Every structure is written in structure tokens, then in C-alpha cells.
Amino acid sequence: MTLFLFLLLVALVLGIIGFAAQGLSYLLIIGAVILGVDLVYAAVRFRRGGRKHRITR
Known about the structure:
By secondary structure, the protein is an all-alpha fold. The chain has 2 helices and no strands.
């Protein structure tokens, strides 16, 4: 969950900087790509999260 929130924050910051700064639109694109990867990561992780793992002793 921490990785998801961190990547979301990074994507948001890069998107804001890329939108606000003239000539740095590539940061907006990088932020969008990171956001997409983060959403796919979250979907895969939450989809598998329902399984219970046995504890080996």
C-alpha cells in the first residue's frame, strides 16, 4: 500500500510540474505513465489480495 501511495504522489507531483512549467511537458507524460503503471499494479495486487496464505511451521 505504501508503494501505491508513493507512486501516486510522484505521478501527481510530476504532472503538476509538467503542466505548470513551460517546456517541461515531458514530465506530464512521465507522470501519466507512472499513474497508469500504478493503477495496474494496484489492480493486480488487490485482485490477488483475497487469498489466504498458509503459515508454514
